Amino acid sequence: MSEGSRAGTGGRLTRRAAIRGAAALGWAAAGVRGLTGARQAVSAADYRGGKLTACMFLEPNSLDPAAATYIPGIVVLKNVVETLIELDTQGRAHPRLATSWQVSNGGREWTFRLREGITFHDGTPFNADAVKFSFDRILDPATKSQTGLSEIGTYQSSQVVDAKTIKMTFKEPYAPFFNNLHDVVLGVISPTAVKKYGADFGSNPVGTGPYRFQEWVRGDHVTLVRNDKYVNTSDLVAHKTAPYLDTLVFRIIMEDQTRLNALRSGEADFIYRVPGINVDSVQSDPRFQVYKNMYAGEPVMFLINRSRFPTDDVAVARAMQFAVNKEVVARIATGGISPVAFGPLKPVVWGYNAEVEKLYRFDPPKARQVLEEGGWKAGPGGVRAKNGQACKMVCAVKSDPVTVSALTAIQGMLRAVGIDLEIQTMALPASEELARQGKSNMTFMEWRGIDPDILTVQFHSKNIGGWNMGHFRNPTLDGLLDQGRAIVNAKERLPLYQKAQMLIMDQAATLPLYNLIAVDGAKASVTGVRYDVYHYYPEWYDVRYKA
Amino acid sequence: MSAGLAASGKQALSRPAHRSAGRLAIFIRRLRRNGAGLAGGIVVLLVFAAALCAPAISPYPPNALDFAAYLSAPAFAHPFGTDEQGRDVLSRVIFGGQVSLRVGFIAVSIAMAAGVALGLIAGYYEGWTGTFIMRWMDVMLAFPSILLALAIVAVLGSGITPLMVAVGIASIPQFTRVAQSSVLSTKEADYVQAARVVGCAPVQILIRHILPNIFAPITVLATTGVAAAIITGAALSFLGLGAQPPTPEWGSMLSNGRVYMEKAPWMMVFPGLAIMVTVMSINLFGDGLRDALDPRLK
Fold first, then answer.
1. Subunit contact B244:A423, Cβ cutoff 8 A
2. Parallel/antiparallel/unpaired status of strands A420-426 and A109-114
3. A166 to A95, A96, A103, A133: CA distances (angstroms)
4. Which of A295, A302, A297 is nearest to A512 (CA)?
5. B293 — pLDDT class (breaks 50, 70, 90)
6. Average pLDDT over residues B166-172
7. Phi and psi for A428 in degrees, rounded to 5?
């Protein structure tokens, strides 16, 4: 569980989350920067060319930006497809494919001025028609967009004003939309290529980015090659021409130890997700460097099903908060790298409410007291019972050793206060399906995003049957979250999300465990690695590497 | 008169199969001469004894969490070290034997019961019944047993009981094969013909006359089958489809240990050794048994 993503993992590799808010990011990014601890790299400072192999932990589900759900697809597409705007580490918007923008009609209309003279990899010119095509396509059910659909919010349609001006219309104001535009899921793709490849576009992405897609061998690798004609329009980078690397290969190795060995043996030049337990040894090896990032989003947590016996009783859900020693869980799952979590958001997310930290602390006697007061009396075999029903719960979980280890520790801790937890291990999709059906008392969860609106995904009652796998239903919370996403002013949004976090924790709808710090590793000679605004994955444009 | 003759004939005919006292002596003598087989047998007995007496001989309860003892290296207090939950690896290996041996024996019992029955029928009725059974077994044999077991577990769900059933079903074809070929070679024997002539019912012939005479190859197969079943069971648990936490099981301990391979190799080494030693001993014992039971070696 720790490492974001072991087989399936880690968290929800989905990308869907991301609904970000206006002001927000600055704080988030600043908070994390201190953690990015790559060692100063050596040599090859001016080298151009070469091939770099990066090992991912999961296969992309699609390379169509609109349909990509899992992180690896996003990681690849970031290099192929560009977006209208980009965000700096302070969360400020900068022009990219759009040079300027304007909001009107109370947030219901956005007008973008587009850059000229840009062409897609297939020679198609970039213009307002391509933007309209890319955005309208997300709404088309045939595109099967999930993340894109959630990020586009209340988008209705686009109007091509002229070749370099586009006006987008929204049903309702949707605060997170503008910042979402930096996400490659809302990137602009070649309409000609979509027509040419049809449903196969997801295996043949064509954009305007620094690298061109070459091939995707399923289960093995994705290869990108340098786009020699590339001109970087970003004002965030000094280098404006084609990227330095000739070839960028993304290998797919799901097993953690195997992926680590690929780095050690030299087979890989970079790996995503060094297993937590092995971080020390990679870090202390002069051949390698590591990048530690507390990426923005929700902590690693178990959603508590507040609609299923016995966790429908708030006393049980609260007792769990006191019963679990998170320090121990974090040590088991991440080798002690990640700090413990107390609320449904990571502290690096804008709007984090530190008050949640005062609600619960590890205190088994308190847990027993809460259960006693809730009517749960000691029963046979040390398992408590109320009205003749034993306090037995079940957790369907992906059969990843680290997640299972952490859960086994939790099982022991719950048992110590009289709660019986049965662990059922299975494949990730199966565990998620049971959770959607409400058949699991606890559900592993982890989500990325830089806006507190991600709470909507896990805790708004409209998402029951979807990603609200704790089946949490609270009209007050629904109201706060609905209000929060419709207001553009950050100062007005803040108190809503602060209240929402307290409410979620007061109702014990989740058991936060630790704020995962993702650790990536590379050969010491890899230079120029820069992380995205989530602090989740590196950008490859400025990277130089000489084998 | 003739009926009486037939009856006494039947008795006389069935006797060879039961004249086992002398055979047993030969068998024991032969087994004792086979050093490796004997050693294997002794180790198997020891593993058995340890599993049976687990609560008495384990230094700690297998699921006692002690987070202060996180990944302790082997030392006097924990001869095999501790795991990431601070649990004593030695105690878990001992208790793990209960699960692994149970999986091995119950799975083989299932396979043997079903497989031998099908083999007897297929061998005795060579017509379409036999052909149908054997072709069906060929289909099952076409899949590696681990794959077959995986498919069955996928249907039944994870846990130890489904695991035993899955491994058991996956091992049926081998027993059917051996039983059927043994029946084919036995059923033309004079004593079987004689039994048929004196009017024994097929069921009686199969059970009283043929079964005891194909006992030797089946026993050998069952012995090695236990070893194979332990391996398959451990493999499925390694994949997270068998024993559910916190149940100690060698395969799942191995799987859990691989995460900590670098920092705490003892978490993998000891359950791995337990599987290796047990399986090897059972196989050695099985080989010894085969030699001892081989009728060609007089």
1. yes
2. unpaired
3. 15, 15, 12, 11
4. A302
5. confident
6. 92
7. -55, -50
Strand partners for A155 = A170
Count Cβ neighbours within 10 Å for each residue of A418-433 and write b for 16 or more, e otherwise. bbbbebbbbbbebbbe
Average pLDDT, chain B: 86
3-state secondary structure A286-322: CCEEEEEECCCECCEEEEECCCCCCCCCHHHHHHHHH
- Using the structure block, give the residue that is written with the tokens 């999961």: A58
Give the rounded percent of residues in chain B with a pLDDT score beyond 70: 92
Q: What are phi and psi of A111, to 5 degrees?
A: -115, 130
Residue B295 banded pLDDT, cuts 50, 70, 90: low
Helix (H, G, I), strand (E, B) or coil at A537: coil
pLDDT at B239 (0 to 100): 84
Q: Does A405 contact B85 at a Cβ distance shorter than 8 Å? A: yes
Residues in chain A whose Cβ is within 8 Å of chain B: 256-257, 275, 277-278, 281, 325, 328, 331-332, 399-402, 404-405, 407-409, 411-413, 422-426
Using DSSP's 3-state secondary structure scheme, residue A252 falls into strand
| Residue where the block lists tokens 């001016």 | A46
Does pTM surpass 0.90?
no
CA–CA distance, A227 with A121 (Å, rounded to integer): 8
* pLDDT, position A46: 72
Query: Phi first, then psi: what are they for B106, rounded to 5°?
Result: -70, -40
Q: Which token pair is B153?
A: 């577990």
Tokens of B37: 């087989």
Question: Kindly report the CA angle at A363 between A362 and A364, in degrees rounded to 5?
Answer: 115
Q: How far apart are CA B214 and CA B206, in angstroms?
A: 10
Question: By CB neighbour count within 10 A (0-12 exposed, 13-18 middle, 19+ buried), where does A295 fall?
Answer: buried
Q: Which residues of A277-287 are buried (b: 16+ CB within 10 A; e: fewer)?
A: bbbbebbeeee
Q: Is A2 helix (H, G, I), strand (E, B) or coil?
A: coil
Q: How far is CA A301 from CA A321, A353, A479, in A?
A: 11, 17, 24
Q: What's the CA gap between B223 and B256, in Å, rounded? A: 29
Q: Where do runs of H (alpha helix) occur along chain B?
A: 2-18, 20-33, 35-52, 54-57, 89-124, 128-142, 145-156, 160-186, 190-197, 202-204, 215-238, 250-259, 266-293
Per-residue pLDDT averaged across B86-107, rounded? 93
Burial class (CB in 10 A: 0-12, 13-18, 19+), B270: buried
Q: Do residues A514 and A330 touch, judged by C-beta distance below 8 A? A: yes
**CA A96/CA B179 separation, integer angstroms:** 75
Given a contact cutoff of 8 angstroms between Cβ atoms, the answer to whether B297 and B291 are in contact is yes
- Please report residues of A whose CB lies closer than 8 A to that of B245: 404, 407-408, 411, 423, 425
Rg of chain B taking only CA atoms, in angstroms: 23
Contact check, Cβ <8 Å, A332/B158: no
A531 closest CA partner among A150, A87, A151, A206 = A87
Q: How far apart are CA A83 and CA A94, in angstroms?
A: 11
State chain A's maximal CA–CA distance in angstroms: 76
Our CA-based measurement puts residue A409 at a distance from the nearest CA of chain B, in whole angstroms, of 6
Q: What is the mean pLDDT of each run of 10 residues along chain A (547 residues)?
A: 31 37 37 39 65 92 87 89 89 91 90 95 95 95 85 91 95 87 93 94 95 95 95 86 94 91 95 91 94 92 95 96 96 91 94 94 96 92 92 91 91 95 88 92 89 90 90 96 86 94 97 95 92 84 88
Q: Give the integer Cα–Cα distance in Å for A153 and A500.
A: 20
Binding-site residues on chain B for chain A (CB distance < 8 A): 63, 65, 67, 70, 84-85, 158, 239-241, 244-246, 255-256, 258-263
B19 pLDDT band (50/70/90 cuts)? low
